[in-house]
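Quick one:
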Amino acid sequence: MSKPISLLSALLCTFIWGTTFIAQDTGMDNIGPFTFNAVRFFVGFLAITPLVILFELKNFKPELKTDKKTFVIYVSLIGLSLFLGSALQQVALLYTDVANAAFFTIFYVPMVPIIIYLFGKKSIHWSVWPSVILCLIGGYLLTNFYDATVRLGDALVVLGALFWSTHIIFTGIIISKYNLPLTIGAIQTLIVAILSFLIGILYEEFVWNNILMEIYSILYAGILSGGFAFVLQIYAQKNITPAPAAIIFSLEGVFATVAAWFILNQVLDINNILGCFFILCGVLLSQLLPLIKKKNLIN
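Output:
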């Protein structure tokens, strides 16, 4: 897969994530956060599984013939990271607003290169750091966070951002070893659905009629975000390293803002527009500056 296709996958994935925040928030009007996630990710699993059977089942044994144990370890790690990140974000929406949640979620942008630098012992192109700063400034302006109060839920979102970071890092590792993006996507969504169900059955009530009342939010967040968006993320990270990928994924704040303006008729003020501009600059810097260095080396 070429890098342009990976970039397109990352952008489409980010668009879906950005437009799902509202569905995540409104989808808990009648059900709890773990019930929502259990049904949402199980729907995502059902959506991806036919594609696995059609396109990847024949490649499963050849891809795993060398090291099944490593595959199981990494797919379990990304599944657990996705569960913890999505669970903390979903629960946090009960205690904070969408603006705060969107802002603190993009803290995974600086966390990814920091974790890689500290524990991966890998060199990171210098352009990542100014790109991270631009994305954080953009996220701050987009969400109007300076007009909001800090809530307990914000701490949950920041903790969740840590697990979004590990999810991005582990995804980058596993997709570099195994060319099974659909299979990985299906397994991780099933892991999240099972773990969410186990916790939900203990602390929440699974009422079928209440679940049906949230069916549209569940289907959107399940099929598109919980299912296909995370598969697109895996495709994207085939040719994009984790740190630049995290910067691109921060565009979800831009897409969320534009969607709110287009669908909900919310007004974009000058700060929102500047926020979009800063994040776009951060993304472009992270992608273009390394190419300039490569071009100079070739010349």
